[in-house]
What we know:
There is one protein chain. The longest helix is centred in the N-terminal third of the chain and has 37 residues, at 2-38. The chain starts with a helix and ends with a strand. Strands 2-1-3-6-4-5 form a 6-stranded mixed β-sheet, with helices on one face. Helices cover 40% and strands 16% of the residues. By secondary structure, the protein is of the alpha/beta class. The protein folds into 2 domains: 2-38; 52-166. A hairpin with a 3-residue loop joins strand 4 and strand 5 (145-148). Helix 2 (44-51) crosses helix 3.
Amino acid sequence: MKYKVLLVFLVLVLIFLRLQSAINSLKPFYLTLEPLILRPHATYDEKMSTIYPVYFDYITAVKSLTPEDSTIYLPPPTTSFSYENEMRRLTNLAITSALLFPRNVSFFDDKSLINTEKNTYVVITNGFPQIKIKAKQIYIIGENVENGFGNYDPTSLNNSVNGLIQI
């Protein structure tokens, strides 16, 4: 009898620990969905801006600044991003391409600037690109979009600036 009670107690403790582990693993998922649950009638753009405020607002600005037949170069996946930096999502080519469709989106490499066609753009984020680029126009994207003329020099901006270079 004593062993049965002890066995039942151990089983209940194991079940409790397993449930606690499951709840802890679902917590990040719930925190991501919480804004959507609290605002079920929000538009798609409002929901995305709530979940990914910097990234989605940046993508929306890029979409409004570029024609549909553009080519947009993103930082390569090897670019170092701090874990907290939301702009690291730019290296997910599938998601960024879907959000910028029908624009052509690809990763930047050394050969990207050899044969630039019209409507070619390079993303500025997290200190990328780290080379000088001859530019038609430079857009700094933040709360407002500021534009400037001249060539892009990576030493002229700090690493926290997000923007777009029109080549």
